[in-house]
Amino acid sequence: MTDEGVASRSRTVGLIAAALVALVAAGVALAASPSKEKIGFTKAGQAQAKAEVLRKADLGTGWQGGAKKPALSSAFPDCNYRPKQSDLVLNGAAETAWQQQISEIDSEVQVLQTARMVRLDWQRTVLAPQVTPCLRRSFAKGAGQGGTVVSFGQVKFPRVAKLTRAYRGVLQLTGLGRFEIDVVAFGAGRNEVTLTVSGQAATKASLRKTELRLARLLVGRLR
Hints:
Elements: H1 3-28, E1 38-39, H2 43-52, E2 64-68, E3 89-100, E4 103-112, H3 115-127, H4 131-143, E5 147-155, E6 163-173, E7 177-188, E8 191-200, H5 204-221
Parallel strand pairs: 1-3
Antiparallel strand pairs: 2-3, 3-4, 4-8, 5-6, 6-7, 7-8
């Protein structure tokens, strides 16, 4: 590949990463809002979160990446919506991010103190009617100057866990076509999980198959 081609792919990956960060920071990752949940990490909670995220062996050959520091900063930065979080306690958090050429997969797990806290947080940061417009705005902002947002919204996804919701964003990138970014949020027990899968729209059948397999794998690890 030419240097220009490498640079082009690099810019594309950067654009996708920016959009992913915007979505996660916007609240799909759950339990992170300006009203501040209590950070009460425990050894057991941290160990549980780290055991539940995606590993390289889950993805097959050609994927590079690993653990990264999970974002626990403000949610919904582009909106006035401020869901209550001060009555929640976070015992553990872990995240892994993986890349293969211009495709990306990210998994984040947060372990709250009780299952009731997960249900409360889901009502506030996933089901609340203010959430989708906030996510759409953050997605558009994350696309920046290098891409055009074709669409963003909630999409159907198999109910892999009792609490399941999915969003899809489509970007048009000059000279590189359309990219899709799927974000699947689900909750079970004391766990809140976000799975993000992105790649060229031309490979969407493969993307759907991959994200469903990984979602089921993640849910199978929750305890």
